[in-house]
Each structure stands twice: as C-alpha cells, then as structure tokens.
C-alpha cells in the first residue's frame, strides 16, 4: 500500500508540474507553505486546475468535469464534522439527480484503504459523485486555499468560482438555492 501511495504522490507531482507539498497541522488541516501568497477565491475567477486520482486509480482533471456545475467537498476520513454531513449530502444529491451537477469529494487521505472504506461506510458513492485523492492536501486543497474541513466550493459550468465558501449540505435551503442558481446561469 505504501508503494501505491508513493506512486500516486509521484504521479501527482508530475501531472501538476511539481507543485510544492504542504504539511498538515494537527487535526488534518493544511498549513500553507511559507512565502506562498494566498489569493481568495473570488466569484467569477477561473477555478484552479487540478488533476487527481479517483478510486479506480485513474487521473481526473478539473477540465474533465467542465460543462457541469461542480460542488467540491474538501474532507478526510477522520473528520467527524465532514462525516456528519454525509446524510445531508445524500439528500442534496437526490434533489439534483438527473441534473448537470457533479459532487466531487476531494480527500486529503494518506491511507488509500481508509479513504475507500470511509466512502463505502458513509454512503458517499453514487452516480453523481466523483471521489478524488489529494494526498496530504498537496494539490487541489492547496490551490483552493482550504484551511479547515469540511469546506465546500461551488463552480459553474465554465469551471469558474461561483462561491469559494459554499453552504454545507446540512445548511439545507441555502445550499439548494446556490446550486440551483449556478445551474440556471448560462
């Protein structure tokens, strides 16, 4: 398993042009590299590109999901608040079933088995779900300036930021309204 993770990390570095890793502070929160400017995600800006590995070991890029509204969920298996959102996330996905919305779960796991087990145990899989591994938050988590978990980001069909701090699934109506607005925009 350690060999598999090492290959994933190496592949990620190659695919992202050798992005510098960040470390995780206690509690699994990413700690930005010193000297890196933090630019907040503003509505309308181009979403930072990423290329991560899915549960089948295939690379998935942000550009592969373009054309659909994307609700990005930054999480990790040991995050109790993240997992507490699972039932509300299932309801949210049901509300948008058959519509052009992708729920992309971006996990900072270092243990692939724990990651996959958590997806299964908490019912996170589904036809509109994409599960991506961002080991130790090195790539997408860093690019999106995620500093706590869970964090949600909403992207429009053109892969532009709709909200850099979208409502949680458990927020109910605000989350539904925001996704619906992004879907209605052309």
TrEMBL record:
GO terms for molecular function: oxidoreductase activity. GO terms for biological process: cytochrome complex assembly. It holds the Pfam family Redoxin. Residues 41-184 form the Thioredoxin domain. InterPro entries: Redoxin, Thioredoxin-like_sf, Thioredoxin_domain, Thioredoxin_ResA/DsbE_sf. Keywords: Cytochrome c-type biogenesis, Disulfide bond, Redox-active center. It is found in: Cell envelope. Its main location: other. One of its GO terms (cellular component) is cell envelope. This is TlpA family protein disulfide reductase. It comes from Hymenobacter polaris.
């Amino acid at each position: 398993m350690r060999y598999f993770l090492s290959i994933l990390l190496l592949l990620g570095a190659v695919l992202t042009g050798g992005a510098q890793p960040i470390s995780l502070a206690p509690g699994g929160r990413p700690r930005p590299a010193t000297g890196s400017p933090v630019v907040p995600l503003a509505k309308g800006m181009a979403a930072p590109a990423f290329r991560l590995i899915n549960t089948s070991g295939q690379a998935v890029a942000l550009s592969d999901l373009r054309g659909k509204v994307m609700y990005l969920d930054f999480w990790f298996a040991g995050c109790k608040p993240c997992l507490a959102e699972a039932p509300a996330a299932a309801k949210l996905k049901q509300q948008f079933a058959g519509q052009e919305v992708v729920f992309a779960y971006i996990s900072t796991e270092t243990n692939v088995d724990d990651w996959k087990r958590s997806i299964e145990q908490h019912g996170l899989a589904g036809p509109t779900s994409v599960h991506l591994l961002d080991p130790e938050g090195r790539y997408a988590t860093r690019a999106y300036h995620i500093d706590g978990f869970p964090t949600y980001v909403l992207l429009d069909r053109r892969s532009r930021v709709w909200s850099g701090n979208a409502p949680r699934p458990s927020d109910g109506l605000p989350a539904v309204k925001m996704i619906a607005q992004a879907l209605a925009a052309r």
